[in-house]
Amino acid sequence: MSRRSALAMVFTVAFVGALAAVPAGADTSGAGSGGADQTALPVGDDPASAAEVDKVYSCQTSFNSNAPGAFNTGDWFNGDGTWDLTKKPSVDGAVTWPDAKVSITAAGVNRIISGNGLPTEETTGEFPVASSDDAYAFDRNPNSISAQTVTITLAKKPKVADEPTCLGMGTIGIFVNGVQFFNALDAGGRDAAAYEIQDSCDGHPEMSGTYHYHSGSRCVRENLDTGSGHSKLVGYASDGFGLYGTRGTNGETVNNSDLDECHGHTHKVKFNGKKQRTYHYHLTAEYPYTIGCYRGTPVSTNG
Ligand SMILES: [Zn+2]
Ligand SMILES: [Zn+2]
User: Per the count of CB atoms within 10 A, which of 54, 203, 230, 268 is most buried?
Assistant: First the structure.
């Protein structure tokens, strides 16, 4: 079995487990539960110019429809505004990065995250996309993955700001495995996870070689968010607030309908080494996947 199908299988099993945890009679229908059905995820086009549930509040408001990237769609688009993750191809390969590094350290009131941007525990696909790869029919990402110099200084105790802030098109946060994440949009303003062909960990490189995710990487969810009950912290947004996996307090799957416009909520959770009441973001299986806007004050809208 290839790593890709092994991963797909593990994720499916985890998902079925999560569904089974929903109490009988609980309402799992409605737009907010799109995350529960991987075969009919909402295609999240149409970035918003204000904070809005189910949307990306995008700083960039006009997009080039001829932007480079995925140029063809396939049968994983259901034709009714939804797409099927289980049918979508991935970029081939399982490249390991032994030189990957990341460190997360406290320095007074700050948290300093530094590294070289490569995944410390996960593999990547082979980039540029090879002409022999089935992904090539849809997305010919010509970029190579390369080490970067990453230093992000965040407040250790971030505060909720008076107003939410829009998301830029570059780095908006970083996972604890050292991989940065971008918002859910591709260069054309479309749902990146639906259109772009990523590798089996849902990542790919951009022009300068920065490897990044646009969604809650299935590898992050499987490798970094093990256990039961409320998800573990899997990353930090550029406003300093923590990003957790897809499980709420009782282990139930979190959907957009459980979260605010920025894709977060406030309750007691483990943060800075102790359980405390704080705002935090959650990954969801559905768009916008990571965060929808900044609830706090970002170090810059692009991280
Ligand atoms: Zn990208
Ligand atoms: Zn939570």
Answer: 203
* 182 found inside a domain: yes
The CA 265 to ligand 1 mean position distance, Å, reads 26
Q: Residue 301's pLDDT is what?
A: 58
| 119/105 Cα distance (integer angstroms) | 18
- Identify whether 111 is part of a domain: yes
Report pLDDT for 269: 98
Query: Among all ligands shown, which has an atom nearest to the Cα of 190?
Result: 1
CA angle at 272 for the pair 260 and 249, rounded to the nearest 5°: 45
**CA–centroid distance, residue 275 to ligand 2 (Å):** 12
Task: Read off the pLDDT of residues 137-189 as tens digits, 9 standing for 90 and up.
Answer: 999 999 999 999 999 999 999 999 999 999 999 999 999 999 999 999 999 99
Q: How far is the CA of 266 from the centre of ligand 2 (A)?
A: 7
Rounded to two decimals, the pTM is 0.87
Q: Measuring CA to CA, how many Å separate 192 from each of 11, 223, 278, 279? A: 20, 22, 29, 26
- Determine contact, residues 165/292, Cβ cutoff 8 Å: no
Give the closest ligand to the alpha carbon of residue 203. 1
Ligand that comes closest to the CA of residue 277: 2
296 in a structural domain: no
Q: How far apart are CA 187 and CA 253, in angstroms?
A: 30
| Share of residues in the chain with pLDDT > 90 (%) | 84
Q: How far, in Å, is the centroid of ligand 1 from the Cα of 192?
A: 7
Q: Compute, in angstroms, the gap from residue 267 CA to the centroid of ligand 2.
A: 6
Domain count, the chain: 1
Domain that holds residue 84: 3-282
